[in-house]
Amino acid sequence: MKKVIAAFNMTLDGVCDHTTGVADEDLHKHYAELIDNGGVILYGRTTYQLMQFWQELLKKPSGEKSRDDFANSIDNIQKLIFSNTLKDTAWDTAKLAKRSLDEEILELKQHAEKDILVGSRSLIIQLLNRNLIDELQICIHPIIEGKGLSLFDQIENKIMLKLIKTKLLSSGAAVFYYEPTRE
């Protein structure tokens, strides 16, 4: 069975916002590699619509290799979108989920050839609360935002984690790889 890997960026004070952080070459390479090794990425509507930015970059490349490579990676991976309002994904490699999050995850875990990635805050929270995350990759940026949406503000119960690896990026951002300990 393949792993469910939740990966997300946040500031040192726990704020998760796609407009804050250090989106440099190292970060784009890091996430392109993760995506290239995944089989599918799950998004909620809001994050999915933010990620559609990369479709435009495919049409008009930036000339910055790491950004353009990331755009190709995000374009190539299958995307499963959880939304009650979207009717069309407008992306050939994206489809709307037809079943509940739990049902989709269980089906994917049984049949996936590669790891299942989760890239939306709302889905990460739901899956952590249901004990369905196998690995949590949190990239902490060297920024104190002071205000904004907290990544973990809706966790229902304490979740113990085991640090399995770290990776330091040139910007000073650090990726922490954790496995939940199932007690």
Structural notes for this entry:
With 183 residues, this protein is α/β, with parallel strands linked by helices. The chain has a single domain (4-180), classed as Dihydrofolate Reductase, subunit A. The chain is built from six helices and eight strands; from the N terminus they run βαβαααββαβαβββ. The protein has helices at 25-36, 45-51, 53-59, 65-76, 101-111, 121-129; strands at 4-11, 38-44, 78-82, 94-96, 115-118, 135-141, 161-168, 174-180. It has an eight-stranded mixed β-sheet with strand order 4-3-2-5-1-6-8-7, sandwiched between helices. α1 (25-36) packs parallel to α4 (65-76) and α3 (53-59) packs across α4. The radius of gyration is 16 Å and the shape is globular. The mean pLDDT is 94.
